[in-house]
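[Automated response] Your request has been received and processed.

Submitted sequence:
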Amino acid sequence: MADSITDPLLLALNATLTIASRAVSAVPGSSIAIKYIKASHQNDPYRTLLEAALVAFMVWYYVGTKHKPGSSDVKLTEKEIQELIDEWEPEPLVQPLTDFQQSELEKLPVIIGSVGGKPKFADGKERLNLASYNFLGLMNQEFVKEKAVEALRTYGVGTCGPRGFYGTIDVHMQLEEQIAKFIGSPAAVLYSQGFSTIASVIPAFAKRGDILVADDGVGFAIQKGLQISRSRVKYFKHNDMEDLERVLESLRVESLKAKQSPARRFIVTEGLFANSGDICPLPKLLEMRNKYKFRLILDESFSIGVLGKRGAGVTDHFGVPATNVDMIVGSIANAFGSAGGFCCGSEEVVELQRLGGQAYCFSASLPAMLTVAAAEAIRALQADTEVLTQLRENIDVLRDVLLRSGAGLPVIFDGAPQAPFVHVRLATPLADREEEERALQEVVDEAARNGVLLTRAKYVWSEELNPPRPSIRITVSAALSKKETEKAATVVKEAIKKVLKARK
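Generated structure:
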C-alpha cells in the first residue's frame, strides 16, 4: 500500500530532476560551475550554504515586493499638524548675545552726519575722534569729496562687473600706475576690498605643497590667506629674527634629507602690525630671504601713508628700494580714507594676479568715485608732506601724555614710537577675557562721557590663530591739532585712572 503511494512521487521527482539537469547542462559553461560547486561543497560545506543564502537573497531582492514612496505615510489630522508646528523650535542662526555684548550694543554711539576728526553725537556734542584709522585726516576733506562727486556724475555708482569682464575703466589703470610710482615698484594691481587683497594675493601664488613661513603676530586677513592657500604653514615668534632663522634652517635641512624638488617658499609678515603696533625689521627679513632663497610678501596696510619720509611705508622708513620686496600689499581704506587694496611687484607678479587672483577675478571692481578719491588722497600726500609732520607731532604728544605723564598707571602701552596707534592693555590680566573687556569698555564709556571717542580692538576670538590680549586701540590723526590731541590724551589718562581705581 505504501509502495503504491511513494512510487509515483519518486518517478515524478526523478523526471523533474532529469529535466532540470538537462536544462542546466544546456547552459554554456554549466559543467564547470557544477564541478566548482561539488568541489567547494566537499572542501567547505559552510561556504556552499553561505553562497546559497546569497543567491536566495538576490532572488528575493529582485522578485520581492518593492516599497513605493508614500505607501506607508502616516495620515495626520489638521489638529495634529498644527500641534507639531507649535511645538517646533528652530535652532538659532547665531548664538544669543551675552549680557556684556547686549550692554555694549545698547551703548553704541549714534553719530549725526559724517565721521571725521570731531564727529557729532546724537546728544549734539562733538567728540575728539581717537577711534578711526583717519591717520592723515583726509576723511571728509572737501577737495576729495569734490573729485568723488565729479567721478560719480561721470561714471555712475558702480561698475557692475569684475575687472576681467567689463569692470575696468580708465581711472582704475591710472590709480594702479600712480600707486606703483608712489611705492617705487614696476607695477601694481588694484583690488576692490582691502581685507580680501592679502587674503587673495597669498593663495594666488602659494598652493598645496608650497611652504609659507609667517610671523605669529599677523592679522586676521593674512591668517585667512594662509588658510585658503592650503600650503604648509610654519610660524616664527613675533619679530624674532633668531627664531625665523631657526625655522628656515630646519626647512633647509629637511629639504636636503628628503631630496625633493624645491617647493615655492614665502616669508609673510606685516610692515606695521595691526595687533601690536610693532614695525617689522625689514633689513633683517631681506637678509634672511636672500640667504635661504625665499620670497617675501609684505602687508603694508597700516604703514602705507604713515611711515617713511614720503609716507610710502616700511621700505621708505628703512630706505630700502621697494623692488627688493617681491610683493608689497596694502589697503587704501586706512590712511587714504577710501576703499580697496593693492599689490605691487614685478610685471609678472601683477599679471599673474589678473589671471588667478580670486578677489580680482570674481569681485566687482572698485567704484570710480572711490578710485578717484584714493588717487586724490595720494596726490595730496605727494604734493604736501606737511601732513606727515603734523601726524608725527601728534603721535609724540599722545605718547608723551600717556607714557610719561601717565607713568604708574596699571596698564601697558604697546606700539612702536612711530606707529599712529597705541594698544592699551591691563598690566595684570584678570580672571578671564570677558572681564578684561568689560573693564576696558568702562574706560571707553568714561572717555566718551568726557568728549573723546575710543574703541576696543575687536577680534573674532574663536578664529584667531594667536589671539592678543584685549586692548583699547587709540589712533592718532592729523585732523586734530596738537592741543586737541593733548586734551584727548589727558581725558584718556584720567579715564583709565578713574575706572581702574574704582575696580580695586
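Summary generated for your ticket: The chain has two domains: 99-138+385-502, 142-383. The mean pLDDT is 89.
If you did not submit this request, please reply to this message.
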